């Protein structure tokens, strides 16, 4: 019995390690030097391509452990497994609880609109989500990502760093750059939450992008629960 783990998160790496030979870990390839050593890297060609791959390999189930904002991959997994009548589990860490001081927005375009002129903005949103900020020549942007962005906002700096980050690191970073606004996706987890704590400590406005709506699927929050689900598949 084998399952396909769609990765891109720390939880996916932990799950693949826990399952061993029972699992094949697949990454999209967005990061050139991933921390994990997957069995497969690259896309599938949409939901139909994923369904064909699953059929060919003879998997018993799929675990979607992609990033909470990898909405298209999650939709592809849902459609592919539905077409094959194959079990699907989503391993998804819970979002950060919303704070009254946050400015919650539905998407990245909303985040750009919520950012006022003359702001000094810390964009902690990844290299592939910068589009709405590329025309903002009225703000200064500190852009942080793992991979270099193809194009960055016109005014500011690019910082290449990989989480996790400490509170001391984030406090020093924001103070050094006189940050007035933090734009973040509500990714959940502890690896990057220090930036939220630092912003709250310094009185920096947090603009939080809500998670995209995903198809309904059986969902667990921990690796242990996902391992148990796989064990039950074999019974």
Task: Write structural notes for this entry.
The protein is an alpha/beta fold. The chain folds into two domains: 3-94 and 213-233, Glycogen Phosphorylase B (Rossmann fold); 103-209, Rossmann fold. Helix content is 31%, strand content 22%. The protein has helices at residues 10-19, 46-57, 71-84, 108-114, 167-176, 194-202, 223-233; strands at 3-6, 23-27, 40-41, 61-64, 88-91, 103-105, 120-124, 140-145, 156-160, 181-185, 205-209, 218-220. The chain has a six-stranded parallel β-sheet, sandwiched between helices. The protein is elongated and about 60 Å long.
The number of domains: 2
Query: Which consecutive residue ranges, at least 5 long each, have pLDDT under 50?
Result: none
CATH superfamily of the largest domain: Glycogen Phosphorylase B
Radius of gyration: 19 Å
Annotation field: number of helices: 7
CATH architecture of the largest domain: 3-Layer(aba) Sandwich
Question: What is the C-level CATH assignment of the largest domain?
Answer: Alpha Beta
Number of separate strands? 12
Work out the strand percent: 15-25%
| Overall average pLDDT | 93
* Strand and helix order: EHEEHEHEEHEEEHEHEEH
Q: For the largest beta sheet, what order do the strands appear in spatially?
A: 3-2-1-4-5-12
Percent helix range:
25-40%
- The shape, in one word, is elongated
Helix- and strand-based class?
Answer: alpha/beta
Give me the CATH fold name of the largest domain.
Rossmann fold
Distance between the termini: 11 Å
Largest sheet: 6 strands, parallel
């Amino acid at each position: 019995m084998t399952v396909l783990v769609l990765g891109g998160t720390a939880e996916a790496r932990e799950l693949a390690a826990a399952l061993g030979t029972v699992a094949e870990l697949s990454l999209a390839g967005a990061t050139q030097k991933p921390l994990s050593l997957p069995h497969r890297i690259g896309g599938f060609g949409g939901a139909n391509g994923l369904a064909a791959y699953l059929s060919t390999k003879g998997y018993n189930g799929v675990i979607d452990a992609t990033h909470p904002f990898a909405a298209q991959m999650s939709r592809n997994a849902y459609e592919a497994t539905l077409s094959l009548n194959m079990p699907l589990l989503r391993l998804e860490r819970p979002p950060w609880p919303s704070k009254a001081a946050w400015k919650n927005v539905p998407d990245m375009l909303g985040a750009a609109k919520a950012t006022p002129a003359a702001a000094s903005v810390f964009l902690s949103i990844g290299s592939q989500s910068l589009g709405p900020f590329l025309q903002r020549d009225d703000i200064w942007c500190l852009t942080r990502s793992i991979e270099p962005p193809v194009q960055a906002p016109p005014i500011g700096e690019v910082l290449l760093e990989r989480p996790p980050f400490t509170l001391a690191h984030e406090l020093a970073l924001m103070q050094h750059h006189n940050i007035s606004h933090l734009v973040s996706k509500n990714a959940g987890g502890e690896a990057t939450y220090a930036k939220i704590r630092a912003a709250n400590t310094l009185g920096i406005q947090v603009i939080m992008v809500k998670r995209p709506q995903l198809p309904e699927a059986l969902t667990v929050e921990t690796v242990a629960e996902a391992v148990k689900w796989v064990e039950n598949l074999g019974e």
